[in-house]
Amino acid sequence: MKTLSPNAMFDKCILNKVLRKKHQSKGPKYAILHLMVASVMLSGCGGSSDSSDSTDQGTPDNSLPINTCDTSSGLTQINTSSALSFNVEQTYSAGQSAVIIASLNNSNSAGLTYQWQQTSGPAISLVSQNSPVLSFVIPESGEYGFSVNVSGAQTNLSENISITANESINQLNINSDHQVVQGNGVSLRIARINDQVADDIEWCYFSNQAVELDLTDPERPLFTAPSVSADSIIELKATGQFAGETFSDEVFVMVTNESTISSPYFDQPVARTYSYNPTSTYVDNASDCVYSNQLNQTCDIADLPLIGQIENSENINSVMDRVVVSHDWMGENFETFLTQADPNSDFIKLLKSVTAVVISSDIRPSFYWVATGAIYLDPEYLWFTPEQRDTINEAPDYRSDFGNDLQFIMPWRYVKDNDYAYRSYDRTRRESRTLADITPSLASLLYHELAHANDFFPRSIHDTLVGPTLIDDFYRRTDNNSLVSDQLQNVDPLTSSEMFGLAGVSFLGGTANATQKAYQPGDVTSFFLTDHANDYYAYSSTREDSAMLFEESFMSHRYKIQRDVAVTDTTEYIVDWGQRGRIGSAEILDRAAFVIDEIMPEVDGKTLLNALPEPINMTVGIDWFENIGISPSNTQSKSTMSSIGATATEVEKRPLQIGREHKEMPLPKR
Predict the structure, then answer these.
(1) Distances from the Cα of 511 to the Cαs of 39, 133, 297, 353, 400, in angstroms?
(2) Which residue range(s) make up the domain with 149?
(3) What does 557-594 look like in DSSP terms, one character per residue?
(4) Number of domains in the chain
(5) 98 domain residue, yes or no
(6) Can you give the pTM of this predicted structure?
(7) For 260-286, how does the pLDDT look when each residue is reduced to its tens digit (9 = 90+)?
């Protein structure tokens, strides 16, 4: 491993941010959430892909202390013949979230491995079976049995525990109990009763540890896990009114004591993770090298090479050997996707340019980081069941607003058959998803993030990497302008100074000047159309320019899913200009074909692009939502398509998407 000076670890240039703000139009039907995600300018920061930094995980400014509870049922400790004990709820009921916590007497859980199994009773979906906190939903009344094995240095203990679940009763239900490391964000959520929010929700705590909650949304309180000297259980209670009755429920959060953070790379708390495949050759290095608060120096290529540097690695098993997770279901669902939704092995090929895949409950948003060579996936893209989704931390990044002073926005969406390519799932509804449901959004995410990895380290140069770390090779390549995104600038660079300046405001947090504040949508349309970008976000950096070209190309090629982009005003979202399938434009062909040929040489770029549908212009003067139905019923290739339009009869108001949901991680200095 290579040691770097702590003062040289990061380029402290521009921190990337997420804009979440409400835009209210003149009519209530247009009230929507406008989510803008920003990225660091790679040419300035020397970074990779996406949008959040690790410095925004503290308690929100509006968190306040809550009262202690007057009464509580709490947990009961059950001792066994060994050093292993259980904390169980005093009563369990069908239909409710439930918890059993395993602990070793006078010992913290750090460094120990937990493995739970159900031994009796109606089948339960276990989603936290590798945690000291077994959280689950009881399907029906009856007897349930569980076993747990706890192993570690000089420890190997197994015990059994049984519980009895009563018939369902009327009460609140808080989803769900968690284990969280000290200092990390925590989110809780009260399930609705008959799709209705309980009235007068109040929260209190009855543990020894005082808690401050952000109750901006009392259905979904947020807090930062406090520092603890030993593993501690935070016990909270919610009370609410419904149909004249008072209901309540309790929730238990185990805050674990962790080693002091020493990593300049991950200098804010990260969740506990582990190798999904316990027999992987890289089981000892994967998590330590890519997601650890003790990562003090970048790992050598010899310790954790790119997947493609290993002989005969173009297969799912080689990828799964590099998957690091906080919960088993994340690895299981990712493997299902690669097995069943990647018939052309695109992602298996692209994954050869990463060292690992990290999927953890606290990753939001997704990103690729050249410092570790890994991609980091937000598990929101992967859940199938409500119980799986319950394990994902909802605590948002608290970021400053970008671009508020501009008079335009440039939204985007993916569409198929004149409809959104994938559904939006409200967290207040406990719905399940299928593989088909998650495939479009996950595929677009992977094409984007893996485009970054292959921009930096395409398969064609794997044999030439000399290390000792990927950072060393990265700088050698950037010094020679050898990255794919560098070479793209020699093919056909973007040149609009106005668009670059506006992107600096929208995505990099720059302050709009008087000229930029005065630009109307028509001005922006003229700037954008005189250049050859497929999306506004391409102007945030040369790296994002190439990634956006690759992502849109392959979404259209493989899934027949097209990308909409438009210029609108900021209130009614009236389209000044818009287009579906801009990646098929003749003026973009050379740029996109170059990126495709460099990243995916098995596919001829120009042949791919010439087979894509001809771009379809939106109807100017109507709003973004009404422009959803502009495609003909049977989308045809360029050679046979005529100019046909369509109008949507039902217009769905979805949250607008601006930019790309991902985060930018800074690089170590030389």
Answers:
(1) 15, 46, 35, 37, 12
(2) 64-256
(3) HHH--EEEEEEE-SSS-BEEEEEE-GGG-GGGHHHHHH
(4) 1
(5) yes
(6) 0.89
(7) 999 999 999 999 999 999 999 999 899
